[in-house]
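Long-time lurker, first post.

We've been arguing in lab meeting about whether flavin-adenine dinucleotide would sit comfortably in this protein at all. Half the group thinks yes, half thinks no, and nobody has a model to point at. So I'm putting the question to the forum: if I give you the sequence and the SMILES, can you give me back a predicted structure of the complex? Inputs are below. Any interpretation is welcome too.
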Amino acid sequence: MRAAVIGAGAVGLTVAHLLAESDAVTEVHVHEARPEAASGATAYAGASDVPHGWTERHRRLVETGEEWHRAFGAGLGADERYRHRTGTFWRSGTPESDARIRGLAYGDLAEVTRPLALDGETPVRGLLGEGYVISPQRLTALLLDRLRAGGRTTFRFGTPVAADSPLADGVVVDAAGGREEYDAVVVAAGPWAPGLLPPLAGSGVRTKQVYGYRFAGDPERPLTTTVVDLEKGAFLFPQPTVPGSYAMSVKHDVFDVPVAEGEPSPEADAQALAVARDHLGPRARLTERRIFVDTYTEGSVPVVADLSGTRRLVCVSGTHGSGIRLAAGLAVEACALLGVAA
Ligand SMILES: Cc1cc2nc3c(=O)[nH]c(=O)nc-3n(C[C@H](O)[C@H](O)[C@H](O)COP(=O)(O)OP(=O)(O)OC[C@H]3O[C@@H](n4cnc5c(N)ncnc54)[C@H](O)[C@@H]3O)c2cc1C
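Top reply:
Settle the argument with this. Predicted structure of the protein with flavin-adenine dinucleotide, as tokens:
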């Protein structure tokens, strides 16, 4: 089988890796619009754990992904490790929010209070549990290395696939006029997927804004856990590969936005800084900020679908801000739809 993958983000590269490992596949071509792989949302994401419990489907995706990560990460040295177990502190003030968090979280939770870093005295109550932080930068670098070493994968960077490509017929036309025919095509184009595949709009996939921030912390008060503040829609956590740097994502309920990166407003910056200072201390400084677009669905359920009905065109979309954590589970499902076992 000759297979194409459109999009070299976390999902596309994991799909390419699974395809390239399979005896059923002879060649894999990765088509990526940007000059480099994993240079958009995948490169900027933190990325923290997604809670197990949103839905049964998330639970299955996380568990399938765990198996893949165990096999892929086996034997890596400390310098190459891309996935780290961490504590996760869920900020919570009421029995109602406790109940909501217990429904979402991964494993058991302990009730704790700890000082708010801002004044060191006001205790903040919450629930402490377990989680993972993945470095998407390290993960995708490893995937690229292995794909290159495997010798079955061809990369086509810097040439976007044309929106009117007859993908359901296995035909990929790129912006430079190149035309290739494949036995199977997997579209993993993140928020651009609905533009390439209009039927996705009918399956409820929408776009939504995600704000990404970076903060420098106070070296005397390192934060070692992920902090989840559901009320403010904020996730804050240490970046595993950049000591002293913290990533924050803030999910905004701004839907159906055009796919364009941009800059947050000064008001959004001030809110994000206030949350960061609560947990990192008054010396926390904003160092980077960007607005991205991600795909969402009603009920937060990702879509992995055979859009041709003939195992020729499979799409992964609607990752709901958790595409890094879910990428492996989604990739295994996408390959299964093509008849390629993990
Ligand atoms: C600030 C921020 C924080 C986040 N934090 C987390 C987190 O903590 N945990 C987590 O699990 N997830 C997190 N996410 C979500 C995660 O980054 C995304 O869900 C993930 O990147 C989706 O991966 P993907 O491979 O599907 O898409 P993308 O990473 O968007 O990759 C899609 C690729 O397709 C390419 N492409 C698009 N159109 C075409 C075309 N026509 N032809 C060829 N190529 C094309 C794009 O250039 C891009 O490289 C965060 C996202 C943001 C923005």
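For your lab meeting: The chain has a mean pLDDT of 92. Residues 56-73 form the longest helix (18 residues). Whichever side wins, do check it experimentally.
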